[in-house]
């Protein structure tokens, strides 16, 4: 098959000798680290709700408020088209993509735990600045600090979870990041629904409560163990073995520990991990993990729905309260999808989830576009039944995304990179992801205004392209030890030619 040519985990090096059992120590460490996702999720959820609140708009964006009031009795694609307003959302992601390179240095030299703690402090400062903002510049400065926090957190947390997890359950463990992200979105939507009724400072409460997950993450980080991979990378071999024994629940870790040391020795030979990322032998990791999947994750259009769900629903004729209520429903759908993905991704594999859910997403985008083309126009409110139908279709889209491109967009890249360039590779992943997040956030409301229902057809077409990309170029990585993922590309129908050209060897595919 097109994405085939991959081996079973048991045939790779010493993988069949790895032993583990699930311990409370391991579970607590992963749950605390995964809280980093709640920072990302809370901001995703809170931004769209706050930008639709009248009190917030009156204070910082009076022109948008006046335009909104002028269209209270009708619907309009262009109601919220304001580049400064969208900069409130996108500035965070521009800051995050810059900070991720500093996060790479901290993650590699000081460990994954250090980056998690730096991210929590920066996010806390940003939340305080936003809650106390009295001018647009103060608001944007707070967003920059929030972005730095997300840059550090998104750099470190997926790596931490993938490195701590045994190969056979790595998919489920890594998706704790997506689950906490979804829970953060849901909590933010619920808070927005309540604070929208608190005048005139409810929006300040929504933004300020971001300090809560940041505080939990910092305090939890004080007690987090460093990953065995990172400790070996830092030369702390005795400590690394002790941690590995505790997280695996057994003293029989010789095989896995030897593989970690071999990977670390290879890593020390690499003086410039960013330059190494561009070598031909690492071309699959660069194209799939660092560039393709992070960009495609944003081009699904999902984050636009998460950013601006209340705004979208208000633009389509829903009242303010109804719009926030509808965004709560999408948040619940996202959490359900994350649980589905956690339960089955290590059984059915990454490719199956990408391709099946991608097909659904294409269908739902086309349905939304056709419905709006037929039923929606400037000054023409949507019938109540059509509005409910659109909410249901959007929820189905969210369910499809939430078990595929949402969690797998973080899981798969975190699996692909060998230790010697893992922190550098994850930096490029986060930078690329945040770049496209920022661009989509900045452009979406203008695109909605000018393309109208056509924007949903654009996203549907992009999902077609990215599904083909997965089908042809991504091998299945389920249950393969993270230090041995590179062998999959030596056996892949397409990548083996490039890998062979660079390192002069060729491994026959396992039948």
Automatic annotation (TrEMBL):
According to the entry, every stretch annotated as the Major facilitator superfamily (MFS) profile domain falls at 29-478
Question: Where is this protein localized, as stated in its record?
Answer: Membrane
Q: How does it sit in the membrane?
A: Multi-pass membrane protein
Q: Which keywords annotate this record?
A: Membrane, Sugar transport, Symport, Transmembrane, Transmembrane helix, Transport
- Keyword Chloroplast set for record: no
Q: Name one GO molecular function term.
A: monosaccharide transmembrane transporter activity
User: Which InterPro entries does the entry link to?
Assistant: MFS_dom (IPR020846), MFS_STP/MST-like_plant (IPR044778), MFS_sugar_transport-like (IPR005828), MFS_trans_sf (IPR036259), STP/PLT_plant (IPR045262), Sugar/inositol_transpt (IPR003663), Sugar_transporter_CS (IPR005829)
PROSITE patterns tied to this protein: MFS, SUGAR_TRANSPORT_1, SUGAR_TRANSPORT_2
Give me the Gene Ontology terms describing cellular component: membrane
* Pfam families according to UniProt: Sugar_tr (PF00083)
Stretches that traverse the bilayer: 22-42, 84-106, 118-138, 144-161, 173-191, 203-224, 286-311, 323-345, 352-374, 386-406, 427-447, 453-474
User: Which SUPFAM superfamilies does this one have?
Assistant: MFS general substrate transporter
Asked whether the keyword ATP-binding is assigned, the reply is no
Q: Which top-level group of life is the source organism from?
A: Eukaryota
**What family is it from?**
Belongs to the major facilitator superfamily. Sugar transporter (TC 2.A.1.1) family.
- What PANTHER family does UniProt report for this protein, alphabetically? SOLUTE CARRIER FAMILY 2, FACILITATED GLUCOSE TRANSPORTER, SUGAR TRANSPORT PROTEIN 14
Question: This chain belongs to which protein, by name?
Answer: Major facilitator superfamily (MFS) profile domain-containing protein
């Amino acid at each position: 098959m097109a994405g085939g040519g991959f081996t079973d985990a048991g045939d790779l090096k010493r993988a069949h000798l790895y032993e583990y059992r699930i311990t409370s120590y391991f579970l607590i460490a992963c749950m605390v680290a995964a809280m980093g996702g709640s920072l990302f999720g809370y901001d995703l959820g809170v931004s769209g709700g706050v930008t639709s609140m009248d009190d917030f708009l009156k204070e910082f964006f009076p022109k948008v408020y006046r335009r909104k009031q002028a269209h209270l009795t009708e619907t309009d694609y262009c109601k919220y088209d304001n580049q400064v307003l969208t900069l409130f959302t996108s500035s965070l992601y521009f800051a995050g993509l810059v900070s991720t390179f500093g996060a790479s240095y901290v993650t590699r030299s000081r460990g994954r735990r250090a980056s998690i703690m730096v991210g929590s402090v920066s996010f806390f400062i940003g939340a305080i600045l936003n809650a106390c903002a009295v001018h647009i510049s103060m608001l944007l400065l707070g967003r920059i600090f929030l972005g730095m926090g997300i840059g550090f957190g998104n750099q470190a947390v997926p790596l931490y979870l993938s490195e701590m997890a045994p190969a056979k359950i790595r998919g489920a463990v890594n998706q704790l990041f997506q689950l906490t992200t979804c829970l953060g979105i849901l909590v933010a939507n619920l808070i927005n629904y309540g604070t929208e009724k608190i005048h005139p400072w409810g929006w300040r409460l929504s933004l300020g409560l971001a300090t809560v997950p940041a505080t939990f993450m910092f305090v939890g980080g004080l007690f987090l163990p460093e990953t065995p991979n990172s400790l070996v990378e830092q030369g702390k071999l005795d400590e690394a073995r002790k941690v590995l024994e505790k997280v695996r629940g057994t003293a029989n870790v010789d095989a896995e520990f030897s593989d970690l040391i071999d990977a670390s020795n290879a890593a020390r030979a690499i003086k410039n991990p960013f330059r190494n990322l561009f070598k031909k032998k690492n071309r699959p990791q660069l194209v799939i993990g660092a560039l393709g999947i992070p960009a495609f994750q944003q081009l699904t259009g999902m984050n636009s729905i998460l950013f601006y769900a209340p705004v979208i629903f208000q633009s389509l004729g829903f009242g303010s309260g109804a719009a926030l209520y509808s965004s709560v429903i999408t948040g619940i759908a996202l959490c359900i999808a994350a649980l589905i993905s956690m339960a089955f991704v290590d059984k059915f594999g990454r490719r199956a989830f990408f391709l099946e859910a991608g097909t659904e997403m294409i269908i739902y985008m086309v349905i939304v576009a056709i419905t709006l083309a037929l039923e929606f126009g400037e000054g023409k409110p949507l019938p109540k039944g059509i509005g409910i139908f659109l909410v249901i279709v959007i929820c189905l889209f969210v369910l499809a995304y939430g078990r595929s491109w949402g969690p797998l967009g973080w899981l798969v890249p975190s699996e692909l990179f060998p230790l010697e360039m893992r922190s550098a590779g994850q930096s490029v992943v986060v930078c690329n992801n945040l770049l496209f997040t920022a661009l989509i956030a900045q452009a979406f409301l203008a695109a909605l205004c000018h393309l109208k229902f056509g924007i949903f057809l654009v996203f549907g077409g992009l999902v077609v392209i990215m599904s083909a990309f997965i089908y042809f170029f991504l091998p299945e990585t389920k249950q393969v030890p993270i230090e041995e993922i590179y062998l999959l590309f030596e056996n892949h129908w397409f990548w083996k030619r490039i890998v062979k050209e660079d390192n002069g060897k060729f491994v026959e595919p396992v039948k």
